[in-house]
Amino acid sequence: MLRVFKGAFAFFAIFSVLVAFAAMVSAQGDVRASIEASNKRFEKAVSRADAAGIASLYTETAKIFPANGKVVSGQKAIREYWKGAIDSGFKRITLTTVELEAHGDTAYEIGKYTVPGEGGKIYDAGDYVVIWKRANGQWKLYRDIWTTNTPAPRQ
Prior knowledge:
CATH class: Alpha Beta
Order of helices and strands: HHEEHEEEE
Distance between the termini: 83 Å
């Protein structure tokens, strides 16, 4: 009887671990799908020249760390930053998630971006890291930092 009990206990322990692992993998997939959908909304807002739409994807207390620029804090200031970028000719962006991992209501994403131009020209390309926060069931950008692969102009 003891042998049967040990076998049943071992089976239950292994089964529990497998179920927990499957749930974790499924949750990570759901987070990835949600964040990639937010990235598509970001891309579409850029193509519509919608700075307010871009800013709405950030938390109220978000910060962006633009390449070659100063830190921009808060959703209103972030909207103004993106409005300035759009006014200067920023019309398209492509975001590609390379790595993503979630821990509760926080996730980090590492990715690549390209800013395509006319005739297949690439205006800029680089890498980014975003820390996401889940608020009211939605994943929003909380910290957004990017670096360009384009060399700085010679002076």
